[in-house]
Design goal:
By secondary structure, this protein is mainly alpha-helical. The chain has six helices and two strands; from the N terminus they run βαααβααα.
């Protein structure tokens, strides 16, 4: 990504190799994978929604991978982001850097988000291909374990008061 005071990014990019992985996800034979992740899903997932999901997966695994070669044309335009989408991307950048100063460099913020999304694409692809069974069931079990942990922490905090 070009940096500098004169460069204003106008799109989100993905790694060129991720395009083939995302195409495989879009055309996946397992219905629950398509329903949750696919651009071709009946729910009409947007590329923006896919990107934010992949970014969240990268963050959940605390893994950011550098993009080796940017896909030409970008994945989607920044004008498609809503304020709450920008807030998520900004929060990831602040969390990653450990300080809010990063928000003054939009190119850096987007580079961070793209790196986490790149890692997320790889985690999702590995998860779909490596483990038999329903992809949604795996996500449900993961969410249940997160919920259980948060519930236990909440109850512990209540008992301390």
């Amino acid at each position: 990504m070009q940096n500098g005071p004169d460069h204003i990014p106008d799109r989100i990019h993905i790694d060129e190799e991720d395009r083939a992985i995302i195409k495989t996800i879009d055309d996946h034979p397992e219905a629950d994978v398509r329903q949750l992740l696919s651009f071709n899903a009946p729910a009409n997932r947007s590329r923006k929604e896919q990107f934010l999901y992949f970014m969240a997966i990268g963050v959940a695994h605390n893994t950011k991978l550098p993009i080796k070669k940017r896909e030409s044309g970008g994945f989607f335009l920044l004008k498609d982001l809503k304020p709450e989408d920008n807030a998520l991307i900004d929060a990831v950048a602040v969390w990653h850097e450990g300080k809010a100063d990063v928000l003054s460099d939009r190119s850096k913020v987007l580079e961070i988000a793209e790196g986490y999304a790149h890692a997320g694409v790889r985690f999702v692809a590995d998860s779909i291909e490596s483990q038999p069974g329903s992809f949604l069931k795996k996500i449900e079990l993961n969410l249940w374990s997160i919920y259980t942990k948060l519930n236990q922490e909440s109850n512990a905090n209540k008992s301390e008061k």
